[in-house]
Write a structure and sequence with these properties.
- The chain has a seven-stranded mixed β-sheet, sandwiched between helices. Strands 2-1-6-7-9-8 form a six-stranded antiparallel β-sheet, covered by helices on one side. The protein has a six-stranded mixed β-sheet with strand order 16-22-15-21-19-20, with helices on both faces.
- The chain is α+β, with helices and mostly antiparallel strands.
- The longest helix is centred in the last third of the chain and has 18 residues.
- The chain contains 15 helices and 27 strands.
- α8 packs antiparallel against α11.
- The chain folds into three domains: 154 residues, Dipeptide-binding Protein, Domain 1 (Dipeptide-binding Protein, domain 1), CATH 3.90.76.10; 95 residues, D-Maltodextrin-Binding Protein, domain 2 (3-Layer(aba) Sandwich), CATH 3.40.190.10; 223 residues, Dipeptide-binding Protein, Domain 3 (Dipeptide-binding Protein, domain 3).
Length: 551
């Protein structure tokens, strides 16, 4: 017996136990829009919005940032999509699952790349294996952890890609074999930003220039990339080759990249743009019509624990964490929906109807408003261990900050709190986003505020801090922690997995290579005549592909 998944008239996947191996499904409309909205319409279907950062890359294997994910969601199509918080069909017309839950067989529909070339299962196989290949240097390999031999392949333990559980059986059939029955797999793939297909011929033709311009990138999604003026503007146009093009109403989408918030808001007030991706707390007061979303991201401070650096000292890390008044910063700076946290697991992750952080308790012990007296105790221990007599004797501490209004406010608030509460001087280096990310990846920092998508698996962010992981920005080494994370990733028993995650989290919270801060909310502005725009839970999941401009 196998489980088959059908997309039903109620707009949800229905699970049926059937004896057939493959049963085709009937697709219905992805959304329902009243026909009257479009009767005799002459309104130009053009949506223009302002973002704060440029796209970092459109190479699926290298993509790891919010704005790239936002644009890729419109330019490409995975096997399935997360739309309006539901899993809907993408390029997979149907799929079935083995009885033990470890083999997923996806049956691709007739779909084309934007140049008319058919999309095949081989395009997915190539993409997934390219991302996992250690020579690619992707920071997103953990997205594929539950796939058979994925970890061994990207860690270099095996070199034969045919041993990895990704197989294009024929042009229309892709088989993914998992190490264990992962209850989060489908949702992770629907929400993930690295599960799109890639055309091998484009990678081979353009090499290092691949996906750096409209000429060197190709997708198979609802829109095509017509223009990318880096640092200024991105223009998308409707893709006539998209398999569900009749459901796409917008003819053009323009993102203006405007780092200065006052400029963005001024353009909105003058009617020059239809929406702003995110606004600060101050602007929510000026624009009470704002919308908001929350959950899906966790922000934390990464302390560079590399040998010989000042943040290698655990007690100094704890001192800085305990001195932070998260509650005050959230109240003064962050957008509506932001929640202070003392965990490395997003409390919005729900398992069996209950927040995982409630079911499996842990804590740094830091109150939301901080604890200066406790912070001073840790600071005194650190000074003693470092052979110093007072805070001013500490080596210089470099906080690298991305050049964005909110990040600068965070940095200044943290800097003031550490100086006023502990007498510790922390210098701030404000860098353009690409250079700041470069400093993070190369370890040229002492403190860096990191925001990461928290996914649906409580181990999503914690997976990053294992020894040798490319996303272990803290450069923290703990064999006990790494062993627990490795063990939970292969444990088919969910209850046991969650206990192992809880044990691993206790270690990282105690040693404090990171200081969890908050799960940020996002406030945004959008005109009333823009209908069907949706902000999903996951970072970067602004969903305008089924939006339209009302008369």
């Amino acid at each position: 017996m196998r489980q088959e998944y059908r997309y039903t008239d109620s707009g949800k996947w229905r699970v049926e136990t059937v004896k057939k191996w493959i049963v085709s499904i009937i697709l219905i409309a992805l959304i329902t829009i009243p026909v009257s909205c479009f009767a005799a319409s002459v309104t130009p279907q053009v949506f223009t919005f302002a973002g704060h950062n440029d796209v970092m890359t459109l190479d699926v294997s290298q993509m790891n940032d919010e704005m790239s994910a936002l644009i890729m969601y419109a330019l490409n199509e995975s096997l399935i999509r997360n739309s309006y918080n539901e899993i809907i069909p993408g390029l997979a017309e149907s799929y079935d699952v083995s009885e033990d839950g470890t083999v997923y067989t996806f049956h691709l529909r007739d779909a084309k790349w934007s140049d008319g070339v058919p999309v095949t299962a081989k395009d997915f196989e190539y993409s997934f294996l390219r991302t996992m290949n250690p020579e690619t240097g992707s920071s997103q390999v953990s997205e594929f952890d539950s796939i058979l031999n994925a970890q061994a392949y990207y860690n270099g333990e095996i070199t034969d890609a045919s041993l990895v559980g990704v197989k294009a059986v024929d042009e229309k059939t892709l088989v993914l074999t998992l190490t264990y029955n992962d209850p989060f797999f489908m949702t992770e793939m629907a929400e993930g930003i690295n599960f799109y297909p890639i055309r091998e011929d484009y990678v081979e033709k353009y090499g290092m220039s691949y996906a750096s311009s409209p000429e060197t990138f190709i997708g198979c999604g609802p829109f095509v990339l017509k223009e990318w003026v880096q640092g200024a503007r991105i223009t998308l146009e409707k893709n006539p080759e998209y398999w569900s093009a009749d459901k796409v109403k917008l003819e053009r989408v323009v993102e203006l990249i405007i780092p200065d918030e006052n400029t963005r808001v001024g353009m909105y007030d003058l009617g020059e743009i239809d929406a702003i991706y995110s606004i600060s707390k101050v602007q929510t007061i000026m624009h009470p019509e704002y919308g908001s979303r929350s959950g899906g991201t966790l922000q934390y401070l990464a302390f560079n624990c590399s040998e010989g650096l000042v943040m290698e000292n655990m007690n100094l890390r704890k001192a800085l964490s305990f001195a932070i008044d998260r509650e005050a910063i959230v109240a003064a700076i962050t957008s509506p929906g932001t929640i202070p946290v003392d965990r490395m697991i997003d409390p919005s992750i729900i398992i069996d109807g209950k927040s995982v952080t409630e079911a499996y308790s842990n804590s740094t012990g830091v109150p939301p408003s901080g604890d200066i007296e406790k912070a001073k105790e840790f600071l005194n221990k650190a000074l003693s261990e470092l052979g110093l007599s007072k805070p001013s004797d500490l080596p210089s501490i470099n906080y690298v900050c991305m050049d964005s209004p909110v990040h600068k406010q965070y940095a200044e608030a943290l800097q003031a709190g550490w100086k006023d509460g502990l007498g510790v001087d922390v210098g701030i280096s404000i860098l353009p986003v690409p250079q700041a990310i470069g400093a993070l990846l190369s370890g040229q920092f002492d403190i860096f505020l990191v925001g990461q998508a928290s996914g649906v698996d409580p181990a999503t962010i914690m997976n990053n801090f294992t020894i040798g992981n490319g996303n272990n920005y803290a450069r923290w080494d703990s064999k006990e922690y790494s062993n627990l994370i490795a063990a939970q990733s292969e444990n088919p028993n969910l209850a046991e997995r969650l206990l192992q995650i809880q044990q691993a989290e206790a270690i990282i919270l105690d040693e404090a290579p990171v200081a969890p801060l908050w799960t940020p909310g996002t406030a945004y502005l959008c005109r009333e005549f823009v209908k069907g725009l949706h902000y999903g839970r996951q970072t970067g999941s602004i969903e305008f592909i089924f939006a339209y401009i009302e008369n």
